[in-house]
């Protein structure tokens, strides 16, 4: 990759109060851009003042959704360092998504280094306060103007940064989940294992229905048989059944979460048996009836761990662990956030220090 | 809807030569815009000079793909009138797509009238020449800045116009189709029956693979069993088997094509038996082996009718009708394009005259 060019903003923004951050509502002073054009490849990496994009109305992203994105967080450690959590995994997944969407591959190392430089420049934007962080959103959009349905020849890669508040302002607590029996997020052979906008567009409707019924997220079943558990909202999902932890296998229609991978490693390091396999909702319900469904929780960058206290599937209502956060969920949350925020040792070398 | 505001371009573009049009590569001097914001609803319809959009990099369309679109054509009749083909159906489908994507409904009548005014203004852009037309692309994008995954509160509706060349520069001719056995376009419960960008993003990869193997389009099988025929590229598909015409039923994962609907009406008016039902590729192959697969063709706004001369499914290669355009395909093409271009009577009242 060429040398990164930097144009500094001459008018810095006022930073929002750390107790008013929310998620993805405020953006920092600068962003990272890089262009792709056929023949030239990826070129002109640059940090510029955060500002509007100018695109032709026929830019392909508006019509055929050729887009991929990532999401990760930068944390400030008690020692004043700035750290990322396994960013190499995010950039690897970005390229995996690119592959599915016919978007040209990026140089992962060079992009990580460019992101590093952006974060160094914006380090004052990493909010103080327990659980706050700087959310990093890399994304690539097809910018070529034209209405033919095919892979574009021109793309823009962007990285924008947003200071975000703690997911749990009052401590980790369980959510209510609705097992979606009508809408489908993704199917084998589709784009489910890519992080691409269309997957999320497809889920908005189901999320609205679930919220209307008093649930905070939907649990997605597989698109083929409507039987097997896939994900929960924008999280992977784990269950503790009779002492064993089970999670849906990466079957091609679910996203390979980085928190998921980390949870599996961590549980195994504790000597817990973890199995990745197909899990039917029926099996889960039976386990629940027999009193063997001991815990359920989602995993993702936003919440890290999201305990599930209640699940509704068709006529069946399941309270899990008395509606309380389970022991594994609590311990995983404490350990993972501890590592992420630099408060604990890093036995798996997951931290990347931004220098 | 409020009164349409009009700002005329002061610098009109040079129009492209009518033999160099291609598809969706040139755009006219003006476009139609309309805003939506929560509380205010759809407002400020306006015709303005065609030009770039300015959007925040966090605009939701770039991240979560909340988008819908439509496609139709304006033709110039031998009498010098400008006509659209069943535009009410397109706007109805637009609202149907909006519903699935949690985008607020538009006033179909008012929008059609605004499109009418845009076309009147741009009528000199409707290209002369057999088979040429003015392609009309209405679309709606979520413009609200922010990274929370939910329906946006702000949207922009646009209508852009592109003079397009004849689909068949050398007369209607058959294409080679590859039956896709790995990738899936859509699944029951997904967004397949909506015209939304994510569906097309998902198909680009398969299209590339098929082209690499020497085919011009893919035939999509259902996402559940990979057995039943859904669509061909961006077209609906029909087969003539033993004198009867069959086409996949609208099962929720295929787009309800307006050409499809018109073909069904027209065939029935000729006394042909048309059945909408589930069709397995196996059944089709058996019919082919028995010499009963007499015709196959796709239907869509772009090509109107696209005869299929050859189909490959797993190891099986099927030449259909000796690789030639079938009688129904030819007659439907002639009749439909004749009605669309105002060269024939309009027995079904499908033409909408732009005045
Ligand atoms: C659909 C979906 N599943 C799972 C996850 C969890 O992935 P990660 O742990 O990498 O954040 C995400 C993203 O956060 C997601 O969008
Ligand atoms: C996926 C898909 N199927 C079918 C069609 C055909 O629809 P219509 O006849 O309304 O153009 C289209 C659009 O042209 C399409 O995009």
Brief sketch in words of this structure:
Chains A, B: Its cofactor is pyridoxal 5'-phosphate. Chains A, B: Keywords: Amino-acid biosynthesis, Aminotransferase, Branched-chain amino acid biosynthesis, Pyridoxal phosphate, Transferase. 2 copies of one chain form a homodimer. Chain A is α+β, with helices and mostly antiparallel strands and 355 residues long.
Please describe what this structure looks like:
Two copies of one chain form a homodimer. Chain A has 355 residues and is α+β, with helices and mostly antiparallel strands. Chain A has two domains: 160 residues, D-amino Acid Aminotransferase, Chain A, domain 1; 166 residues, D-amino Acid Aminotransferase, subunit A, domain 2 (D-amino Acid Aminotransferase, Chain A, domain 2, Alpha-Beta Barrel), CATH 3.20.10.10. Helices cover 23% and strands 31% of the residues of chain A. The first copy, chain A, is built from seven helices and 19 strands. In chain A, strands 1, 2, 3, 5, 6, 7, 8, 9 and 19 form a nine-stranded mixed β-sheet that branches. In chain A, strands 10, 11, 12, 13, 14, 15, 16, 17 and 18 form a nine-stranded mixed β-sheet that branches. In chain A, a hairpin with a 3-residue loop joins strand 2 and strand 3. In chain A, helix 2 packs across helix 3. The longest helix of chain A has 16 residues. One pyridoxal-5'-phosphate (PLP) binds next to helix 5 and strand 16 of chain A.
């Amino acid at each position: 990759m060429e040398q990164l060019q930097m144009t500094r903003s001459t008018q810095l923004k006022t930073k929002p109060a750390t107790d008013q951050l929310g998620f993805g509502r405020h953006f920092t002073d600068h962003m990272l851009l890089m262009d792709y054009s056929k023949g030239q490849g990826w070129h002109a990496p640059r940090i510029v003042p955060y500002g509007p994009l100018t695109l032709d109305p026929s830019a392909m992203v508006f019509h055929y959704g050729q887009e991929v994105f990532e999401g990760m967080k930068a944390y400030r450690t008690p020692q004043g360092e700035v750290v990322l959590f396994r960013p190499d995994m995010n950039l690897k997944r970005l390229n995996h998504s690119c592959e599915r969407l016919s978007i040209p591959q990026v140089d992962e190392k060079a992009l990580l280094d460019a992101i590093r430089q952006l974060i160094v420049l914006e380090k004052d934007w990493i909010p103080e306060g327990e659980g706050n962080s700087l959310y990093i959103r890399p994304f690539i959009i097809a910018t070529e103007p034209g209405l033919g349905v095919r892979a574009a020849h021109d793309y823009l890669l962007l990285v924008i940064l947003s200071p975000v508040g703690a997911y749990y302002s009052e401590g980790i607590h369980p959510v209510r989940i609705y097992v979606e029996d009508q809408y489908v997020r993704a199917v084998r052979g589709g784009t489910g294992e890519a992080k691409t906008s269309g997957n999320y567009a497809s889920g908005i409707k189901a999320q609205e229905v679930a919220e209307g019924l008093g649930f905070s997220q939907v649990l997605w079943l597989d698109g083929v048989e409507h039987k097997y558990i896939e994900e929960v909202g924008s999280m992977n999902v784990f269950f503790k059944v009779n002492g064993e932890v089970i999670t849906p296998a990466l079957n091609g229609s679910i996203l390979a979460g980085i928190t998921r991978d980390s949870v599996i490693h961590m549980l195994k390091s504790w000597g817990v048996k973890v199995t990745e396999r197909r899990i039917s909702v029926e099996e889960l319900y039976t386990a629940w009836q027999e009193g063997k469904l001991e815990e359920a929780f989602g995993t993702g960058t936003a919440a890290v761990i999201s305990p599930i206290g209640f699940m509704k599937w068709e006529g069946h209502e399941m309270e899990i662990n008395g509606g309380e956060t389970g022991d594994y969920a609590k311990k995983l949350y404490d350990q993972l956030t501890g590592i992420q925020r630099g408060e604990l040792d890093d036995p798996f070398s997951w931290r990347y220090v931004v220098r």
